[in-house]
Design brief:
Four copies of one chain form a homotetramer. With about 300 residues, chain A is of the alpha/beta class. Chain A is elongated and about 65 Å long. Chain A folds into two domains: about 160 residues, 3-Layer(aba) Sandwich (Rossmann fold); about 120 residues, N-(1-d-carboxylethyl)-l-norvaline Dehydrogenase, domain 2 (Orthogonal Bundle). Helix content of chain A is about 50%, strand content about 15%. At the A-B interface, strand 9, helix 8, helix 9, helix 10 and helix 11 of A face strand 9, helix 8, helix 9, helix 10 and helix 11 of B.
Chain lengths: ~300, ~300, ~300, ~300
């Protein structure tokens, strides 16, 4: 195990922290960096080398994973004044697991290629829990012959690593899934609410939908109505799960991608607006299935 | 078999015709009526008694099934000048399989109760094919103790008979399912379209969605993108299936129910508008999954 | 003045009360009825005759004005067990100033015609203040040769009486205006909010819009942003004005009319949903321009 | 006149061509560049100097106007390999009249400032006709003390030059106006369509709206219904005017700005989708008021 070559890891936040730990567990020497030095401390104790900049990471590791909150952060880490590209070695493999605009992934890939290195986008699905348990799903875009090399690292952190196509398609797959998820969730919430107001028992209605053509993951696995299922956020006052503010972020990326490709997304666009309004009305940190609560309140005079 | 008591059947259109035939096959003497006399001729040849009005049907049969295209038709057949209620016998069981506004079902139920008879709403899902094959699903609303009597007849025409609650809940369940179906279908169509424009292979994208949280009946069983699945309308130029104009009708009923109960249905409302625009743009008779085609066309200058 | 023939008035609520008083002021003997007897007391003191039912009003007056909160109320007052039609005299003129579904207006007109009387729909715009001041606008639908007779009465209560066409078009005009108003108001609110977040001064932005193609009544006469104009509800914490719950009601009527005529109204439909959500979020009694407040809140984590 | 100092002009397309000609008419020596050499030829004949790159323009003129189709073009012209910034002189005044993302305007302003020059965004409203007639409206963002210098040039091309605030607010004002315009136009189109289907005469309905709270520029100055007004695109089969594809572009910019500032724009977002669908359905080159035609078509089976 000790003979494994080091892996760089940049971005040790809520998601990056448990992901990097899983690399350590699998015996990889980790070269760590985070813009907040405190985030690195824990890794120092675990034997990781902590560096002063993304450039320093690139100097010491030729395989690097980045996990950052937004497109501007990713640009800074790759192409900034102390960015990876300042010192990246030829032939290095750079894997970005951030969820960002696929157009930005393509830009970064071009810049990386110019330096003779390889870039892949590999955003994840599954939240902090899956990151800890090491069973994230990775959706990977990039040159196909490098996929095996990427997979070797990603399987330390996830149970499912899917090749999606050229650079940017990992992001595209994630954005697409989450857009359809948001639409189905809002649709399920408003349908359940309408059914209840028309006199249907919510459990019975869920059962009917789930054996019919209205069935979807939001109705049969993650039902947003309290009392219909156990072990889901709706059974726990919408705590835990996938936060409304994160869903709003992903829907914003979908909007930008759709705008740039001139693709009509009438319901995706409306779903974005609804999650945006929810954020403004105090739901930012609740699970995104709280849209049921947002829509159901009785009118009061 | 000959000893079975007669069953009235009013409304022998695309759906009513094969449904009534299945009653005949099960040995029920059928007392038939349709506003278009030609529609009855076939049943005369099958040995059914053909009558001149709904009232006449009510005089000769104490179990009646109605299958009509809209709320005004249903009102006319029950409460019109020659309607069922003019001659209905006490204790009769009247089952309405039309898809109509649940508020109208409740009105009819009240009028029927005043005459000492019983009314149940029992709309169907599954189109003409399921009607012929006798495997429709019936969603039934009404007094629970009468459900067994209704089920005896309905199982001759359907494979699935679900009790939903008090009068109107059969309609409510159907409307709710179809609203969520429309939302998921449009969502699937725009998601697939966006993914394709972002460089994803449609089959691969469908596979990713179907193993993720974006999964829904429209993505895994009835995918709207040509080439992704076989045996669905999208594989056959959107012929057959469930027509856009019928979906628009059901979404209109959902809108009216939501308006009357002051229920916010932001995506259901938008789905209604999209199917309405499709009807105006020549898609009325195509399967409702043709929304993919409606949204995907390239812009041309 | 004393020689004027009596006028019936049914529905003495927030709007009906000041309207009927203006008839009294103009010297008309008023025959009054309201479902809540207390509502009539004040009119007794003013010398009006108070009756026990709409039928009684019809017995004593051959010109009647009705001002009721909803379609079911209007149906009851005209066609109910003690309704106007039980005792209406031939040649009577019945004017309904309620805001209801135009399809219901047409139904009532048919029933009234059968009795040999005349029905006109004449909904108003302008709220309680305009009702008191006698400067409401009436939009009138019905047979054109009766318009002058209607106008004689309506000018006692309004400053503007517009003939719109056959029965139902008064309702249609009102519903159409309010739908476009709601769309423009929400549009103005979201535009002002976006501009402010992009660094524009709200007063300057309003000025630019008002001299450009974005100009509308909601931007130049009733701006929803506090501080931009004086003497409007936004300058007074959205008190007074036209309540959100009333706007939601009118948008519901627009939806039902659009559904019944198969007319696509994508933004009208979304506007309905937004006012519906506002009602559920505590804005029911605020002026409808409070949509600016509903949309603007900052996201808080 | 001959003593006037030269003005650079980059981007001689549909709009830039007549704008630059108006500078020539006012006696300014023009230093011209366009990516398509043919576009410059006409200016050579008019006595302008034609250059090989934006950098060359910057070398010869210290006041430059740019008029480009999109954000990427603007970035290239300013910061590209042969861009303005390669040779810009200290103290130069660079005015960008392109309609682009205000965030990009801010980026460009920063880069320009670093070189010791001044950047202002000054997008226009009014189409090719107004550009020819020299009565465009300019909405200007940038440092206030430079506004007079900019205004001197812009008044040669426009009749209305409005100072909006810091850099980016010119774009913001334009985007905001056009978003509200699109919302009002679609709203007017669907309202007129609904009114017509409910039996109202379109001219009468327009008159009622225009004297009521539904009044907006789209109803009273640019009515989308053929036969209501003369001299507008709806009177001429929607030819001329402001193309649907241009409106879709501006709405895309509004979406991106709203997404980046987390501003809910529910109707603006839906308006974007509708113009996007119209582009895909063959309306790209028609005036944006053709949305009436898009929505009104009768359903045909």
């Amino acid at each position: 195990m000790a003979s494994k070559t080091p892996v760089g890891f940049i971005g040790l936040g809520n998601m990056g922290n448990p992901m990097a730990k899983n690399l350590v567990k699998h015996g990889y020497p980790v070269i760590a960096y985070d813009v907040f030095p405190e985030a690195c401390k824990e890794f120092q104790d675990l034997g990781a080398q902590v560096t002063d900049s993304p450039a320093d990471v690139a100097e010491r590791a030729d395989r690097i994973i980045t996990m950052l909150p937004s497109s501007p952060n990713a640009k800074e880490v790759y192409t900034g004044a102390n960015g990876i590209l300042k010192k990246v070695k030829k032939g290095s493999l750079l894997i970005d697991s951030s969820t960002i605009d696929p157009a930005v992934s393509k830009e970064l890939a071009k810049a990386v290629e110019k330096m003779g290195a390889v870039f892949m986008d590999a955003p994840v699905s599954g939240g902090v829990g899956a990151a800890r348990a090491g069973n994230l799903t990775f959706m990977v875009g990039g040159v196909e012959q490098e996929f095996d090399a990427a997979k070797e690292l990603l399987t330390c952190m996830g149970s499912n690593v899917v090749y999606c196509g050229e650079v940017g398609t990992g992001q595209a797959a994630k954005i697409c899934n989450n857009m359809l998820l948001a639409i189905s969730m809002i649709g399920t919430a408003e349908t359940m609410n309408l059914g209840i107001r028309l006199g249907l028992d919510p459990k019975l209605l869920a059962k009917i939908l789930n054996m019919s053509s209205g069935r979807c993951w939001s109705s049969d696995t993650y039902n947003p109505v309290p009392g219909v299922m156990e072990g889901v956020p709706s059974a726990n006052n919408y705590q835990g799960g996938f936060g409304t503010t994160l869903m709003a972020k992903d829907l914003g990326l979908a909007q930008i991608s759709a705008t740039n490709t001139k693709t009509p997304v009438p319901l995706g666009s409306q779903a974005h607006q609804i999650y945006r309004m929810m954020c403004a009305k105090g739901y930012a940190l609740k699970d995104f299935s709280a849209v049921f609560q947002f829509l159901r309140e009785e009118e009061t005079l």
